[in-house]
Amino acid sequence: MTLQRMDNVGIVVDDLEAAIAFFVELGMELEGEAQIEGTWADRTVGLDGVRCDIAMMRTPDGHGRLELAKYHAPAAIGARPHNPPHNTLGMHRVMFAVDDIEDVIARLRTHGAELVGELAQYGDSYRLCYVRGPEGIIIALAEQLS
Q1: Does some domain include residue 43?
Q2: Which of 16, 18, 83, 122 keeps 20 to 30 A from 54, CA to CA?
Q3: In the chain, what is the greatest distance between 2 CA atoms, to the nearest angstrom?
Q4: φ and ψ of 44, to 5 deg
Q5: For helices 101-109 and 16-26, what crossing angle results, to 10°?
Q6: Which helix (H) or strand (E) holds 97?
Q7: Residues paired with residue 37 on neighbouring β-strands, in sequence order
Q8: How many domains does one find in the chain?
Q9: How confident is the model at residue 93 (pLDDT cuts 50, 70, 90)?
Q10: What pTM did the predictor assign?
Q11: Given pLDDT bands bounded at 50, 70 and 90, which one contains residue 146?
Q12: Residue 25: in which H helix or E strand, if any?
C-alpha cells in the first residue's frame, strides 16, 4: 500500500468565523462547512460526545486543504499535554508559498495578524516570515526570489 496524498491539516479554533476570514484573506477558498457528531466521530478521534463545526479551506491550486474545527463538545482545551487529544487548540505552523509577501502581511494585519519575528531573506532564494493569526495559529510565508 502506498500513500496517495496528504488530504488536509486540521486546526482546532475557538472563533471559526475569524479563522475562516483570516485564511480567505490569505487566499484560500472556503470549500464547505459541516457539523460533525455521532458515534463514528467519537470513535475516530477518541473522545466521547463529539460535536463540532468544521470549515474546509482549499488552496487556489486545489492541492492543499486545511480543516478548521470549532469544538462545542467536549470543549476545546488550551493546555498542551504530552500527547494532546484531537481538540487541543493550535499547532506548530503551516507554510504557504506567496507571490508578494509584503502584500500578504499587510492584508493579514487587517485581521489582527502580527509578525512573530521579522521578514528575512534566505540567500538569493526566498523571503520568509512567520505570522501569528487568530487563536495564536502560526503560519509561515515564503516568497521565492527569481
Answers
A1: yes
A2: 83
A3: 52
A4: -65, -45
A5: 150
A6: strand 94-97
A7: 51
A8: 2
A9: confident
A10: 0.86
A11: confident
A12: helix 16-26
